[in-house]
Each structure stands twice: as structure tokens, then as C-alpha cells.
Automatic annotation (TrEMBL):
It comes from Butyrivibrio fibrisolvens DSM 3071. InterPro entries: Bacterial_rp_bL28 (IPR050096), Ribosomal_bL28 (IPR026569), Ribosomal_bL28/bL31-like_sf (IPR034704), Ribosomal_bL28_bact-type (IPR001383), Ribosomal_bL28_sf (IPR037147). SUPFAM superfamilies: L28p-like. This is Large ribosomal subunit protein bL28. GO terms for molecular function: structural constituent of ribosome. One of its GO terms (biological process) is translation. HAMAP family: Ribosomal_bL28 (MF_00373). One of its GO terms (cellular component) is ribonucleoprotein complex. Belongs to the bacterial ribosomal protein bL28 family. Keywords: Ribonucleoprotein, Ribosomal protein. It comes from the Bacteria. The keyword Ribonucleoprotein applies. The gene is rpmB.
Length: 61
């Protein structure tokens, strides 16, 4: 899974815990989108998480 190029948010690891309290591995993927972004007047494709898009950390092209 990709990592956000603005804030660095990526994959988190943890455990699924069943009702009987048995544990198995689990992954939480960040909601990362590949979008066109304006940087210094030019357009570039970047991997950006949706929280950075909502907070206007980058300007979409």
C-alpha cells in the first residue's frame, strides 16, 4: 500500500481479537489516493491521503 507523500501516513498493524480472545494479524490501510496536484505552477501526480485533501494541505490541479 502507498504512503501519503504529504504527511507520511501509511499502513498500521495490529491484531484481530475474536470473541474467544484469540488473536490474528490485521492491517489498517490508510485511505491514499493518487491525485494530480499543483506544485510551483506545474502539475504532478502524488499519493495523498484523504485527510490531507480535506484539510487543503495540497491544491488539486
Amino acid at each position: 500500500m502507498a504512503k501519503c507523500e504529504v504527511c507520511g501516513k501509511g499502513v498500521h498493524f495490529g491484531n484481530n481479537v475474536s470473541h474467544s480472545h484469540r488473536r490474528s494479524n490485521r492491517i489498517w490501510n490508510a485511505n491514499v489516493q493518487r491525485v494530480a496536484v499543483k506544485i510551483n505552477g506545474s502539475t504532478r501526480r502524488m499519493n495523498v491521503c484523504t485527510s490531507c485533501l480535506r484539510s487543503n494541505a495540497v491544491e488539486r490541479a
